[in-house]
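A.,

Following up on our hallway conversation. Structure tokens first:
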């Protein structure tokens, strides 16, 4: 899976088995899941809008789409082992009117496979966590009138989970990510927390289990590789790339295996970081060839 924000949309690209409650929703094999920011007065036909968007970017129509009035700089991305959750959220009218339903969009990605029933159960798990998060924040509604959830997993994954309730390995990760991510996303959309771009959170077990927001500003480890390195992609959009030229699978202290790429400097090379910004869909092989030419 590759994910990136381009113009006013979040793109997830890959070979997915997915379920969605959004535009063209249902159960399907898709190559793209996206969440696009649209104007507050958006009145176009959503299906036609998605068709035009996929044509604009040269994408297959095997696509699930979500729409929101929330700016993508307020996007929160949360990685919990093999699960990554993307949240944009708004529950108040941007005109400053009294609180009224707005839009909460959630995309869940699993590197490990999910059977169709588990894909659908993940939607339930994410929706339950959303309702709990809103309740914890003091809101009296469990969601808004235009919320949507999309869930995608690797189509060719060797392992396929059968269930995704909150007691399962998948479900507890999804529940925890949404429970943490939704308040963070709302805080950004409401201006309580200010960031120039999307926020990235990693579930860490170092020093006790907790969420960590990665921020390059004021990083105590800079430069961790070489003087003059770029840190635009310290949270690597290719992770885990499984490219053994760049990293390796290691045993985790908490069990299982994790991808270790602490020695990888590819996206820290200034010329490559700039290239990826201009060409967010560039494949790793393309970037490795570019590095050889530098």
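Then the amino acids I'd put at each of the 294 positions:
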């Amino acid at each position: 899976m590759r994910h990136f924000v381009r113009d006013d949309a979040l793109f997830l690209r890959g070979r997915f088995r997915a379920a969605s409650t959004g535009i063209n929703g249902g159960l399907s094999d898709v190559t793209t899941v996206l969440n696009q920011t649209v104007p507050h007065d958006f009145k176009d036909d959503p299906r036609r809008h998605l068709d035009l968007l996929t044509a604009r970017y040269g994408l297959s129509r095997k696509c699930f789409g979500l729409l929101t009035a929330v700016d993508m700089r307020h996007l929160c991305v949360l990685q919990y082992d093999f699960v990554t959750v993307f949240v944009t959220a708004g529950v108040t009218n941007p005109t400053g009117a009294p609180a009224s339903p707005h839009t909460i969009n959630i995309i869940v990605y699993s590197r490990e496979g999910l059977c169709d029933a588990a894909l659908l159960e993940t939607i339930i798990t994410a929706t339950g966590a959303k309702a709990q998060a809103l309740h914890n924040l003091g809101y009296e509604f469990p969601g808004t009138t235009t919320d949507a959830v999309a869930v995608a997993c690797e189509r060719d994954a060797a392992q396929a989970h059968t269930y995704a309730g909150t007691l399962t390995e998948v479900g507890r990760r999804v529940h925890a990510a949404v429970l943490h991510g939704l308040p963070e996303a709302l805080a950004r959309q409401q201006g309580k927390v200010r960031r120039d771009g999307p926020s990235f959170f990693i579930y860490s077990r170092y020093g006790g289990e907790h969420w960590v927001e990665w921020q390059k500003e004021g990083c105590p480890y800079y430069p961790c590789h070489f003087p003059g390195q770029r840190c635009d992609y310290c949270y690597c959009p290719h992770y885990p790339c499984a490219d053994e030229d760049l990293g390796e699978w290691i045993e985790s202290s908490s069990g299982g295996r994790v991808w270790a790429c602490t020695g990888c400097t590819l996206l820290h090379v200034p010329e490559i970081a700039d290239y990826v910004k201009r060409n967010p869909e560039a494949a790793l092989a393309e970037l490795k060839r570019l590095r050889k030419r530098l």
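The chain is about 25% helix and 30% strand. Curious whether your intuition agrees with the design.

B.
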